[in-house]
Amino acid sequence: MNIVFIGAPGSGKGTQSREFIEKYKFIQLSTGDLLRSAISAGTELGKEAKAFMDAGKLVPDDIMVNIVKGFLRDNRGKSVIFDGFPRTVSQAKSLQQVLAEQELAIDRVFYFKINPQILIKRLTGRRVCTNCGEIYHIETKPSKKELTCDVCGGSVVHRSDDKEDVITERLAQFENNTGPTIEYYRSTNLLVEIDGSLTPELVFKQIQNVLTL
Ligand code: AP5
């Protein structure tokens, strides 16, 4: 099974992906995490992607599609949660084509619908573990020991693109590029809207209810 989590920055895609890979046999393809790893490793891809990410812009489609192709080649036969990909109609069409070449398809697209006003607070307060990717929030889900991950003891940091001016640009990119992608999936009848403003447990339940139909 292949599912897509689509939604604005901070709508909870990463949080839910972690829940689903823990409880079900999914693997997560987070294009944001792959790009951040490339930046940390100082690869050519990382160098190219950094300027776009720091500015809150989307990394060009051809780069993103190549990353996803490589990931799918290395993970044939596994059930994938696509977290943060596709974000443009062109990426969505490429994904369909790449999956079709492996006789696969997208089964459901979950759109995390949420009021943008909530997102600024979620993102400015978010902290993430640089080692295992665990996601925290300074108010709603703080790590027990400041700056240290409860799960693996790694460093917990504030993402460099979680500053208010960059968040504003990321939200604009979402509206302009991902908005049409959502409409594209609506027209294919794959889209399931869920309320992303509820608690993580209730968001999880909404997705689980659809997957176990
Ligand atoms: P990426 O890393 O994918 O960032 P994003 O899509 O902006 O999403 P976020 O990771 O910010 O949010 P999320 O929805 O996962 O929320 P989370 O669960 O962490 O992309 C970063 C950049 O990479 C892009 O800007 C772009 O430059 C580039 N990029 C990536 N993919 C690309 C692509 N396909 N094409 C082109 N460029 C691409 O939750 C956020 C906070 O809220 C946390 O603190 C969490 O604890 C809290 N929270 C979560 N759920 C709840 C809840 N239900 N109730 C209360 N709090 C909650």
SSE topology:
Layout (H helix, E strand, L loop, with lengths): L1 E6 L5 H11 L2 E5 H11 L2 H11 L6 H14 L4 E5 L5 H13 L6 E6 L2 H9 L1 E4 L5 E3 L18 E2 L6 H24 L3 E5 L4 H12 L2
Parallel strand pairs: 1-3, 1-4, 2-3, 4-8
Antiparallel strand pairs: 5-6, 5-7
Helix pairs in contact: 2-3, 4-5, 6-7
The structure holds BIS(adenosine)-5'-pentaphosphate.
The site of BIS(adenosine)-5'-pentaphosphate has 33 residues, from helix 1, helix 2, helix 3, strand 6 and helix 8.
Give a description of the structure.
Helices cover 49% and strands 17% of the residues. β5 and β6 (135-137) form a beta hairpin. It has one domain: 3-Layer(aba) Sandwich (Rossmann fold). The protein is α/β, with parallel strands linked by helices and 213 residues long. The radius of gyration is 16 Å and the shape is globular. It binds BIS(adenosine)-5'-pentaphosphate (AP5). The site of BIS(adenosine)-5'-pentaphosphate has 33 residues, from α1, α2, α3, β6 and α8.
Quick tags:
single chain, 213 residues, alpha/beta, Rossmann fold, 5-stranded parallel β-sheet, 8 strands, globular, binds BIS(adenosine)-5'-pentaphosphate
Can you give the mean pLDDT?
96
CATH class: Alpha Beta
Share in β-strands: 15-25%
Given the helix and strand composition, which structural class is it?
alpha/beta
Radius of gyration: 16 Å
Query: What does the largest sheet look like?
Result: 5 strands, parallel
Order of helix and strand elements from N to C terminus? EHEHHHEHEHEEEHEH
What would CATH call the architecture? Answer: 3-Layer(aba) Sandwich
Q: Count the E strands.
A: 8
Q: Bound compounds, please? A: BIS(adenosine)-5'-pentaphosphate
**Which regions are unreliable across 5 or more consecutive residues at pLDDT < 50?**
none
